[in-house]
Give the backbone structure.
Amino acid sequence: MKTTLIPADVTNANAHRYPPESLKQAFVKLPKELTGTIGYVDHPTPSQAAFKATDFALNEHGDLTVQIEILDTPCGKELQKLVEKGQVAFRTCGTGNLDGDKVVDFEITALAALLKIDDAFGDL
C-alpha cells in the first residue's frame, strides 16, 4: 500500500505547512535505517510489530510518500482492519523549525500509524 506521509503545502490542524522544498530536504536527509523500519503499536515487542516502511519517494506534487507493508502479527492484523475501514493515516515524527507557518529544517526520525481522528492533516 502506498500512502502519503506528509502532503506538500497543506496547512494542518497545528497551523503548520510543509513546503515542497522542506520535504525535499527531509527526503534527501532521510536516515537510511528508516527504510525497512518496523512500525509498532504501543511499546515495542515482536508481537506488536505492525508495519514495515519501504520505498520512500517524492511524488509530482512534492508530497512525501512511502510504501507500507502491514505485517502478519497480532497488531498488524488489527492495523489492517483499521486500514480497510479507512481509519488510519501513516505519518512521520521528526524535528524542525517554524518560519511563520512553514516547517523548515525538517528531519524525520520515525514513522507512526495514527487514527485519522488524531491526524493533524485530517481526512486527506
